Amino acid sequence: MYVISLTLLVLLTLEHIGAVVTPIVTFDPDWNKIFTGESITLTCDVDEDAEDATYHWFKDGYWIHSGKTYIISSAQTSNSGNYQCQTSSGSKSDPVRLDVHNSYAILQAPLRVYEGDNLTLRCHQYPGYPAKQTIFYKNGAVIQDWGEEEELYIENVSVTANSKYKCIKEVKHNLLYYQPSDETSISVLDLFSLPTIRLSPDSVTEGDPMTLTCDVRLSPLRQTKVLQFAFYHDGQNIQDFSSSNKFETLSTQRYDSGDYKCVVKTYHSEMRKMSETVTIQVKRNGARELFDKSETEVLSSTPGTSLAATVFSVTSLVLILIIVLIFLYRKRCFLPDINQHLPNVSYVPQTEFKEANDETENIYTDLDTHNRWTNDSLTLCKPDGNKLVVESHIIV
Fold first, then answer.
1. Which residue from 105, 168, 219, 374 has the least number of CB within 10 angstroms?
2. How far apart are CA 55 and CA 23, in angstroms?
3. Given CA atoms 86, 75, 179, 155 in this order, what sign does their dihedral have?
4. DSSP letter at 153?
5. Under a CB-based contact definition with an 8 Å cutoff, are residues 85 and 57 in contact?
6. Cα–Cα distance for residue pair 229/237, rounded to 1 Å
């Protein structure tokens, strides 16, 4: 009983931990720097539906406020620091930095910059001070020369935007123009994680359905971004880009085995990320294999098939025997023992044969004299290869 209770307690604890949602701090306006006297609103953004949730704010690790938002109405340099919020679930957000300045000009950037964002940097002068021209630098090189524009626009940023930016601005004070400068560093965040392929079911058998899911985690602050998915099998595209992150096969075959990848991109940009390769081996269906084996055995034991094989074998053997006999006949000129068939005829050796007509005549004479043969014929070979045909008549 004690073990059961302890197990239930552990499961409930794990369930509670799994329900924890990490909140995110956002700024409005979305600038990482402000001047003294300006106002800014900090919000604890969390994907949590509980109406009775409570929120707490911390600056540099110390509690400062309770509530979903924290408003700084007239900022002072003392408001600079790292801010975090915490929800009733017990999770605390990552710290974010706010800097409050009391100078002529600051280079403002968004609190977070994600892949595919259109980045805006603003070279901002202190409120109430007139300004003229501005120049922008990236890693020490001019990227926007002196001009009236106080903002720098960079479309569809990527990791190549990870750089240090600087601006110089002409600001007027007491009839004189000064050229204050400021710098900021940009670190582009991942819009979505590297995709991974998930196979369902875990093991695929021939004839079964198969589903591939391209899993990807989109940043919580960019949930409105539209992603598209494509699938590849052994390097060949099997499903072009679409909003579906699944590829399905209703009846998997052995040729569906191989390497699979998925590619994810945003709808309005060409930023793409590819998953690692997943190798899938489709197993042979046991029932199908047994059926194929039984079918093979039935075919091999079919009477018609066996008879045909037997006839083919006998025919082949006869043909081979005939060929061998012809070969021997041509090579050795086979001569039967005439004395066995003609007991009363003297056998004349081949070396003493006369002309064909004389020999034929003699044999005919002997055969007629003994008067013992029926109509028959015998073919002999002469030494020169010519044939000698002997016709005989036997009276029974």
1. 374
2. 10
3. positive
4. E
5. yes
6. 11
Write out the E strands in 174-270: 176-178, 181-186, 188-189, 196-200, 210-215, 227-233, 236-242, 246-249, 258-266
Q: Tell the CATH topology of 21-102.
A: Immunoglobulin-like (2.60.40)
Question: Does residue 343 have a cis peptide bond before it, meaning omega lies within 30 degrees of 0?
Answer: no
What is the residue whose two structure tokens read 């926007």?
144
**Contact assessment for residue 137 and residue 164, using Cβ atoms and an 8 Å cutoff:** no
47-88 pLDDT, tens digit per residue, is 765 567 899 999 999 999 999 999 999 999 999 999 999 998
Give the torsion sign (CA, 112, 113, 117, 123): positive
Tell me if the domain spanning 196-286 has CATH number 2.60.40.10. Answer: yes
Helix (H) or strand (E) holding 133: strand 131-138
Preceding amide of 29 cis, omega within 30: yes
**Alpha-carbon gap, residue 370 to 393, rounded angstroms:** 10
Rounded-to-integer distance, Cα 358 and Cα 348, Å: 13
Q: What is the pLDDT of residues 169-205, one digit of tens each?
A: 999 998 899 999 999 999 999 999 999 999 999 999 9
Task: From residue 140, give the alpha-carbon distance in Å to each of 137, 147, 165, 174, 326.
Answer: 6, 18, 8, 30, 101
- Report whether 233 contacts 258 (CB < 8 A): yes
Mean pLDDT of 300-329: 68
For 308, residues 6+ apart whose C-beta sits below 8 A from its C-beta are none
Considering only the top CATH level, what class is 106-189?
Answer: mainly beta
Nearest C-alpha neighbor of 151 from the set 176, 178, 125, 126: 125
Closest C-alpha to 32, from 115, 124, 108, 126 = 108
> Quick one: how far is CA 31 from the chain centroid?
42
DSSP 126: P
Beta bridge partners of 12: none
User: Could you read off the pLDDT of 321-370 as tens digits, one per residue?
Assistant: 888 788 777 765 444 444 444 444 444 444 444 444 444 444 444 444 44
The residue that leads in pLDDT, 285 or 151, is: 151
Percentage with pLDDT > 70 across the chain: 70
